[in-house]
Description:
single chain; 19% strand
Amino acid sequence: MAKIAVNLLPPEILTEYTKRKKFYKIQFAGVTVFLIMIFLASLTVALSVLQSRNVVEVQAKVSEQQQRVSSLQSVESSLSLLKNRLTTIDQYLGTPSKQTLLYQVIDKLLSSSVVINSITVDQSGEAALLITVPDSTTLDNIVSTLTTKETNENKISKISLDSLNRGRDGVYRMSLKIKGI
């Protein structure tokens, strides 16, 4: 069965009712938009507060790191200066001079029975020796050792004998000049 609807209200009331219904819809939409705008504005304010807090924290960390870097720059400059000094010292220690090489060769070649009374090594690489030898065999060994290129490692170019004396006690005293290469 079909339902029959009878509307006994006058048409003015129906039009007014539809107008009110439209007005309430528009009013609801406006209030909804207004509430959404308030929500978005409060969300924006909250995010800006959080961002500003994060920015302040990051700025504090950045300034702390800058202070650390500036303090480490002075340490770095000090370390660089020390490194340069150590490099210079290593260069001096790493490359022996003529005097050092000649002294080391002489010290190596002279036997323990030889007494060195005096040794002088100048900057040009010449050494003056005043030595005491107990017997003639040791004297021969010293002369042959100093004059042989294999034993003196080619580091002695010239040997000159200034004086040779034999004392009453049988000990030989010798004054030598040795020129290094």
